Amino acid sequence: MTIDAHTPAEPAAAAAADDPAYRFISPARTWAMVIRYVYLLKGSWPRLVELVYWPTVQMLMWGFLALYLSEQSGYFATIGSVFIGSVLLWDILFRGQLGFSLSFMEEMWARNMGHLMMTPLRPLEFASALMVMSVIRLAIGLIPVTLMAIAFFGFNLWSLGLALVAFFCNLFLTSWSIGLLVSGLILRYGLGAESLAWSLMFLLLPLACVYYPVDVLPAWLQWISLSLPPTYVFEGMRALLMDGVFRGDLMVWSLLLNLVWFAVGLFAFLRFFDAARDAGSLLQLGE
Amino acid sequence: MEGGAGPVGRTGNPAISVRGLLKRYGAVTAVGGIDFDIAKGSVTGLLGGNGAGKTTTIAMLMGLVLPSAGSIRVLGTDMLRDRHKVLHRMNFESPYVDMPMRLTVKQNLTVFGRLYGVAHLKDRIAETAEALDLTHLLNRPCGKLSAGQKTRVSLAKALINRPELLLLDEPTASLDPDTADWVRSHLEHYKAERGATILLASHNMPEVERLCDRVLMMKTGGIVDDGSPADLVARYGRATLEDVFLDVARGRGKAAEDRAEEAFAEGGTQ
Question: Structural domain of residue A230, as residue ranges?
Fold first, then answer.
């Protein structure tokens, strides 16, 4: 594309262009974006309430159902905690992705993408800030709910210890992969694709076997399920809560699949970003 | 205004150098293979009617839009390959691109200052706010400002990193004459103080005549004329730049130029 018909760059300009702060990925610019979203949350109590509201409603609804089931005799008595565990881990997955995508959509709603992308902010730094925000938003929403689960239902998610760290890491990686893909689609196709942020993750609800074991699925669907990183997390959670066994192998499988998914998500985000630049839509992103 | 960019291709180390810049959206050509250089320290106006290709050209200069062909060097850097190395030395202002409405003026300036890697940011924000009469508005959300105040905030954002190159897209659109005059004065002051290069897309002819030492006239994606405002007015045999603009927009440019040449040949003054 480049037609080299230019005079060489001036030495001073070349030196300024070689400033390392602008040559590489910068944590400072990532942090600047995190600050931008923290300002937004601090200045808007409805946004803060929304972070806690839905996880609370979910926990209460499914928690009382689990309580009812646990009062029954036999097998049902053992699955109450598994049910609540599934609800909480699903919420980590769903809210993690939503935290990523909603922070991204704040820029779309504010029509701020043009301003941001003419600063030295790189797409990777932007994506990193969205990942940090997904953790912050999830923490704001989920920590009170896990405490509520202890108080109301005697289920202590934190007692899972190191296993919980493995679950968290894998679920976050998946949520970021989906978040990157959804954000890329919105970047390219505008807010018309916004509904994907709310709906795409729900495709994983039946396929990743959140509430039931993989072998419930027909054989052909099991293959699809086993290609999804969260499937191994939910299987691992059931193994831990029902059999008292931490399945490290399942976490490794989940991590390996997540690395592939994350690479695909990142690649898609960067490609959609370039496609948006090609289509000239960064300055006028909207419907 | 003193100084000025030379004509296309004659400048030594231009702030902006564009060759064969082309942008197509499917079958539509938005910018049709243009060449120009912008001299350092100059103020250049990009004039043309709606759809002439001004905004697309500016967006390509910033790297927001990918060209279909051609090359762009800004401050000596290849924008298609290394734009992130030079973006901290330039900035942009347009009343059509909002600042985040829910953040206060100070929060917005803090975020953008950090993105641009501005040193001693608190001092710089205070300095910029004072220069643009925004100090009393620093804690107000941008969404609660008047159009004139928003423009000043947008300008503060554009100047926060003391850019060497400032790209402006109709910077005084929708402002009352007093505020618009104030903004122009501030731009003149900034240019004089920093020796910055300014590229300005505008429909406001008096503004262009006041600020610019060179004008690139665009029409249907091409550059159809190039010169200082006074040169263009003389060459087209018109009284004002607005008349020249109308000649170009309505396809009378060539006829007017012929008239001017005939008059010149007959010994008349233009």
Answer: 26-279
